[in-house]
Write a structure and sequence with these properties.
mainly alpha; Ferritin
């Protein structure tokens, strides 16, 4: 059984995943022009991946008897492409920190399944961070 702290951290992760799933999808829809065209498909793909993360984490939390949150963390669309990508990069950095903390706690609690889940998601988040960092180099 997961500790209350681990379950709360998993719900923070769900809120964050819901946030960026909506955020990236709306950014995909909203941005136009050459620069927007260059990133919109990537934003859509990452948004879909984030929703799948939310689902996987919610399933794990429900397994422990927890109730997954339905409320996303605050969503930020941005006024221009640079502002948007800077916020997205910051969100991915925050996720990486949170997920590393969850992995450490899951390991301490000998919860190998949660640890494995978050290690997999962490790899995706590091790729997303790399994508946003790379896109920012061109702006």
């Amino acid at each position: 059984m997961a500790s209350k702290q681990l379950m709360e951290m998993m719900n923070q992760a769900i809120a964050r995943e819901l946030q960026v799933a909506v955020q990236y999808m709306w950014q995909h829809v909203m941005w136009k022009g050459v620069k927007g065209f260059a990133v919109k498909d990537e934003l859509k793909a990452i948004g879909i991946a984030e929703m799948k993360h939310a689902e996987a984490i919610a399933e794990r939390l429900a397994f422990f008897g927890g109730t997954p949150t339905t409320k996303p963390s605050p969503i930020f669309i941005g006024k221009n492409l640079k502002e948007m990508l800077m916020a997205d990069k910051k969100d991915e950095e925050g996720a990486i920190k949170l997920y590393r903390d969850i992995i450490k706690l899951a390991a301490k609690e000998e919860d190998h399944t949660t640890k494995k889940l978050f290690k997999s998601i962490l790899g995706d988040e590091e790729e997303h961070l790399d994508t946003f960092s790379g896109l920012l180099e061109e702006i």
